[in-house]
């Protein structure tokens, strides 16, 4: 029966060899599938398409931060807005704001205080962060829970909803000669350029109430600040701009689809 015993051992060796071959075959198939997936991914991206910087995944919350208060926004009812130094028509008149902005958006200002038929607002004029009083009867009030925070040292733009971060982007800022000014601003002109990308501003520009503190004019304009697209990926975290905040095109389109006119923009050092 020694022959029979050897035969059983042979069969066992054959079984073990088949099992090893199946394992090796499965591993090779998995590797081929993985390589194919990578090849498809690279092919669908296109050889000339630059990778984009996606927003950092920030957990969205449904409850407001403790002590959070919505920002008040005032929009003209249709006429020009007379602005005074005090909540009285007998006080010094600071300026008159046209009913439409240069880009034909309804004049909208960020309210900082309300008092007996008057609203105090940050004005879209020089010097930056000038405030004045406007008769409440000439505006319609609304609120927003959104706020944009820009940190110059970190080169970050964070969108807050009800006091909590929901998006964060790496941005490019002003040079040493044309720095991005600090202060409290707001969105005045959401300009959609997606149908014809601008060589400087990219796919979208969110015009702001602030101005360059160095340039009095730029590209035929008055040096108005903006958060806009057109940033190269390699520029993220650097300082190549004339004072504006640059983002990747897909990022600015995403941001612009969320924030309304009057959204506060806080720029800190």
Description of the structure:
The chain is α+β, with helices and mostly antiparallel strands and 269 residues long. It has 2 helices and 15 strands. The protein has helices at 2-45, 249-256, and strands spanning 71-76, 81-84, 93-97, 108-115, 118-122, 131-135, 139-144, 146-151, 156-161, 164-170, 183-192, 204-211, 224-228, 245-246, 264-268. The chain has an 8-stranded mixed sheet, covered by helices on one side. Mean pLDDT is 83; it is low at 1-53.
Keywords summarizing the entry:
single chain, 269 residues, alpha+beta, SH3 type barrels, L,D-transpeptidase catalytic domain-like, 3 domains, eight-stranded mixed sheet, five-stranded antiparallel sheet, 33% strand, disordered N terminus
Order of helices and strands: HEEEEEEEEEEEEEEHE
- The residue ranges in which pLDDT falls below 50 over 5 or more consecutive positions are 1-53
- Order of strands in the sheet with the most strands? 10-9-8-15-11-12-13-14
Structural class by secondary-structure content? alpha+beta
Q: How many strands, what sense, and barrel or not for the largest sheet?
A: 8 strands, mixed
**CATH classification, class level of the largest domain:** Mainly Beta
- Helical percentage: 10-25%
Q: What would CATH call the architecture of the largest domain?
A: Beta Barrel
Determine the CATH topology of the largest domain: L,D-transpeptidase catalytic domain-like
């Amino acid at each position: 029966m020694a022959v029979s015993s050897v035969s059983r051992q042979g069969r066992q060796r054959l079984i073990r060899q088949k099992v090893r071959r199946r394992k090796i075959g499965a591993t090779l198939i998995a590797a081929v599938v993985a390589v194919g997936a990578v090849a498809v991914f690279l092919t669908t991206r296109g050889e000339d398409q630059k990778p984009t910087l996606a927003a950092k995944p920030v957990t969205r919350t449904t409850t407001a931060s403790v002590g959070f208060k919505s920002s008040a926004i005032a929009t003209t009812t249709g006429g020009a807005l007379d602005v005074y130094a005090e909540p009285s028509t007998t006080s010094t008149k600071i300026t008159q704001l046209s009913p439409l902005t240069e880009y034909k958006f309804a004049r909208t200002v960020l309210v900082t205080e309300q008092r007996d038929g008057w609203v105090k607002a940050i004005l879209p004029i020089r010097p930056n962060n000038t405030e004045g009083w406007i008769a409440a009867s000439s505006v319609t009030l609304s609120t927003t829970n959104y706020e944009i925070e820009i940190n110059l040292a970190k080169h970050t733009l964070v969108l807050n909803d009800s006091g909590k971060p929901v998006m964060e982007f790496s941005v490019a800022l002003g040079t040493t000669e044309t720095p991005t000014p600090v202060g409290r601003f707001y969105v005045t002109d959401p300009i959609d350029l997606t149908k014809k990308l601008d060589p400087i501003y990219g796919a979208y520009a969110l015009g702001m109430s602030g101005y360059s503190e160095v340039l009095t004019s730029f590209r035929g304009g008055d040096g108005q600040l903006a958060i806009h697209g057109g940033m190269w990926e390699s520029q993220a975290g650097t300082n190549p701009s004339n004072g504006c905040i640059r983002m990747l095109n897909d990022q600015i389109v995403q941001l612009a689809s969320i924030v309304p006119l009057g959204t506060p923009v806080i720029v800190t050092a």
